[in-house]
Amino acid sequence: MRGHAVSFKDDPFHSDDALVDIEDALIVCEGGIITAFGPYEETKDAVPPGVEIVHRPGSVLCPGFIDTHVHYVQTGIIGAFGSQLIDWLNHYTFIEEQRFADADHAAEVARVYFDELLRNGTTTALTFCAVYPESVDAFFEESQRRGTRMIGGKVLMDRNAPDALLDTAQTGYDDSKALIERWHGNGRQLYAVTPRFAPTSTPEQLEAASALWHEHPGTFQHTHVSENVGEIQWVRSLFPERSGYLDVYDHYGLLGRRSVLAHGVHLTAAERRRVSETGTAIAHCPTSNLFLGSGLFHVHEAKDSRHPMHVGLGTDVGAGTSFSILATMNEAYKVAELLSYPLNSLKSFYLATLGGARALDLDDKIGSLEVGKEADFLVLDPAATPLLAFRTSTVESTEELLFVLSIMSDDRTVAATYVGGTLVHERKES
Fold it and tell me: Cα separation of 61 and 64, whole Å?
């Protein structure tokens, strides 16, 4: 693949030399891995005889997008008329997720979900499934068919939810263990131990989740934290012995590398320091936070050089309003502006690619265009719409081009998505 390539070698929140920008680049892939990458004139000899180079002049080649928090089982309720978090869960989420006891329904939604991910350029996602093991099997089976590197897990809930969605500390442990043995490390699939959030798990279940996570090194821990003010008050009432919401997870051993907490909108300064100290990651989900009125995530505080946190972007569908990471960048910029922080395009694209990979502790495999990385990448079209074509024709730098793409784009901008070097989505021209 030949074209204008952009990638990252460092974190632009802390480095002035983070961007890799090659106007005429070549990506060579073999066996799903990038085997050569660099300026075309320096790299063309790496192309084996008889292999045709796909040239995409005028396009932008970049790593596949990484969604660090999304619910595939909420695909069917995206755009449901809003209310605050807890009401939204009760009115929509808990009703919808009961449908995933049906394996056929789970498989059907998984197909739609993966179509949407790839159409929007998302090649890796950390995904909530439902409480039912069948929903996890459907998710990973579809990922296997697509060849994608995905992370998912069965939700753990043993209180404060409808009876049909409840497991127990023991059955949740047993079901999750069986799913880990079946799916973790099976091809490109990875497993996440997934307590929904502290209010829907008893102390016994949080203990079991922690045991499960630590018994299976390399798995993930995925949950929610400090999304909504009312939620935080609820957690305090349920765990009065703990100093705060984050301390609940800390007490039960659920912080650390490969622990990803969604939202973190209302984390205190002390909690942010603890997230940083433990290497825990936060998934910033601006479209969801705005849709539910949860609040504004301070990305500048999260990336403070004194105690920087690992941060990635999350769509959080279905409370999130789009599968598009490009649209999510747009909303992240606006949230930052409301907090008087200029979130430039390099920082946004970093969060969507290498930043997301670092948040997931997978930056040795994905997130950038580098030799030895898995060949998940995108072809972005700066002329995807007439207005976008008009606007991008006037840009004077790559940084400006990326900014316009991050503000004006949607799924139409993703001309092609490659997974493991294989074309898995190509935009249909009207």
Answer: 9
Residue 254's pLDDT is what? 98
Q: Decide: helix, strand or coil at residue 209.
A: helix
Q: What is the pTM of this model?
A: 0.98
Q: How far is CA 390 from CA 4, 158, 324, in A?
A: 19, 54, 22
Q: How far is CA 271 from CA 238, 265, 281, 346, in A?
A: 19, 11, 12, 27
Series of mean pLDDT values for 10-residue runs along the chain (430 residues): 98 97 98 98 96 96 98 95 83 94 98 98 98 98 98 98 97 98 98 98 98 98 97 97 98 98 98 98 98 96 97 97 98 98 97 98 98 98 98 98 98 98 88
Pairing of strands 2-8, 19-30: antiparallel
99-128 per-position pLDDT tens digit: 999 999 999 999 999 999 999 999 999 999
pLDDT tens readout for residues 346-362: 999 999 999 999 999 99
Residues 6+ apart with CB under 8 A from 336: 299, 300, 342, 343
Task: Please give the backbone phi and psi of residue 304, each rounded to the nearest 5 degrees, phi first.
Answer: -50, 130
Backbone angles phi, psi at 404, to 5 degrees: -60, -40
Name the helix (H) or strand (E) containing 214.
helix 203-215
Which of these, 324, 330, 275, lies nearest to 304 by C-alpha position?
275
Beta strands in 45-175 (DSSP E): 55-63, 65-71, 122-128, 150-153, 155-156
Label the pairing between strands 55-63 and 220-225: unpaired
